[in-house]
Amino acid sequence: MSSGAHNFGTVALLSTLAALAYALLHAFRRLRLALVGKSLPPGPLGVPLLGALPFMVARPEVALNQWAQKYGPLYSVWLGEQLHVVVSDLGIAKGLFETQNMVFSSRKETFLKSGIVFAGRGISAASFGESWCRNHRLVAKYLNSDAVPDYLAGLEVETAEMLKALYIKSQGGTLPLDPHPHFARTSLNNLLTVLFGLRTDTVDHPLVAHWLKLTQEYTRITAPLSNAVDFVPGLRRFPAWTGIGRARRLHQSVVGTCSALVSDVDRRMKAEEDVPDCLARHLLKAKEEESLDDLDVVVLCAELMLAAVEKTAAVVSSLVAEIAGNADVQARGQAELDRVVGRDRLPGSEHEKDLPYISAIVKETERLHNPLPLGVPHMNTEDATYRGHFIPKNSVIILNTTAMTHDASLYGEPNKFDPERHLKGTAKSTDQGYPIFGIGPRACLGKPLAQHEIQLAAAGILWAFEIERVDTSADATAQEDAPAPLRVKLTPRHNRVSAVLGYAKAA
Ligand code: HEM
């Protein structure tokens, strides 16, 4: 026998033994639990050391959905040595949180996101404890639904600025464009105002493209299941292959950018300049009393900017893409705006409650185009049991919110864009609520701000423009592995648009 064939035989034997040992270990784990009358939720077995990680490399949500079909809406899966419990049903998610809210409201402090990107600080990646409580309390003061009404006038100004910039950049509707950077700038400006009391003056300001790039990198390297290195500690010896280097660079870049903004607020406060009330000022003033160090302040601000900008902009871009492809929805939304707002002023936040169809368009976009398809994983701090399934302490809980919002038993024809289903009192009305902002004490802190921003953007764009999608299939610059960029033609809807937007050179 040749040495090559011999080596192959040895490798095959060792692999088989490793797989057997792994299967035995899992069988033993399950048997041990069964002996004391406990059974884990069912789930796939996976492979030695890595568990199910190899099946989740490309599109984790596809693998998760296939397992949900096979094992049901509550199943367990090992990723490396970490047990994950995946919930794909809204009723079960609500059930878990209604009965054991506090038990399920921690997070696993992951190696990449928590340890490197946020340097063990911040809110979203922190386990449930004193530091999370303090940070959550400090930030909530500036973001909860009591605080947001103070920002509404500013959000309206930013929306009007965004519409005007779209009008100008598209040369009064003659040039197709990608509106996404404009939506990102609006969201960035809203956050910069809340955090630092400042804003960018144009979409071409370098901070807009820089921050968009950082948030996209953040999304790529911190997606809930993207990092084998979080669950297989042995991989940490290979920083070049495992995203560790990228996470370090992201940390440096994000902290560098936000440190400069925080330092400027600090300098202005020390020079006794007039600094508007903003989160950075509040945190700097409270540093001693709240035992915050410099990095705490910077990471809190950076985290909010990372959490906010791209997700909010992504929803608005998806909304525009959907409207461009649904002439009936567009016409119905515009008819509502003409009726409620008229053509001599822009829709404002005072109109929101009188625009149920626009709200329904927003809800339907969020249902279909969830910008955080698997939410942010939770962790349970105590052993728990749900409908006979044992969920051991320190399991990572994935709320598969996309599966929940595509549940055909709640939303008939779940892949269809149909705002009508959110209109109360109509034949199609379902009103199941949807969990894209999360559930329980760890639910999104920015929801009130994001919802107002998106609603104002939706109403403003529909008020101002006829939206038409431009075909990008022949775009030679498009990258093969990236989604086609959104390109739309935004034609002013009526002859009052330029005047109301304050654009003097109107046709
Ligand atoms: C469309 C926009 C947004 C979506 C879909 C979204 C979604 C989410 C989700 C799913 C979570 C995890 C909830 C859970 O664990 O149950 C979360 C957490 C969080 N979000 Fe958002 N978010 C959005 C915008 C924002 C904005 C604008 C901000 C800040 C200004 C923000 C700040 C946060 C923070 C700080 C957390 C961590 C909460 C915690 O762990 O205690 N988000 N968000």
What is the H/E string?
HHEEHHHHHHHHHHHHEEEEHHEEH
- Averaged pLDDT: 89
The end-to-end span amounts to 85 Å
Bound molecules: protoporphyrin IX containing FE
The helix content is 40-55%
Classification by helices and strands: alpha+beta
Shape: globular
Number of helical segments with 4 or more residues: 17
Biggest sheet, open or closed, and with what strands and sense? 4 strands, mixed
* Number of E-type strands: 8
Rg value: 25 Å
Order of strands, main sheet, comes to 1-2-6-3
Parts with pLDDT < 50 across at least 5 consecutive residues? 476-482
Work out the strand percent: 5-15%
Protein name: Cytochrome P450
Pathway: Secondary metabolite biosynthesis
Keywords: Heme, Iron, Membrane, Metal-binding, Monooxygenase, Oxidoreductase, Transmembrane, Transmembrane helix
Family: Belongs to the cytochrome P450 family.
Please give a structural write-up.
This is Cytochrome P450. Pathway: Secondary metabolite biosynthesis. One of its GO terms (cellular component) is membrane. Heme binds at residue 444. It is found in: Membrane. By secondary structure, the chain is an alpha+beta fold. It has 17 helices and eight strands. It has helices spanning 3-35, 60-71, 90-100, 111-117, 130-143, 152-169, 180-196, 206-222, 228-231, 244-270, 279-286, 294-324, 327-340, 356-368, 401-405, 447-464, 497-500; strands spanning 74-79, 82-87, 378-379, 384-386, 389-391, 396-399, 465-469, 488-492. A four-stranded mixed β-sheet has the order 1-2-6-3. It has a two-stranded antiparallel ribbon with strand order 4-5. Strand 1 (74-79) and strand 2 (82-87) form a beta hairpin. Helix 4 runs parallel beside helix 10 (244-270) and helix 6 (152-169) packs antiparallel against helix 7 (180-196). The model is unreliable at 476-482 (pLDDT under 50). Protoporphyrin IX containing FE binds at residues 123-124, 136, 143, 191, 304, 307-308, 311-312, 315, 371-372, 375-376, 378, 436-439, 442-446, 449-450.
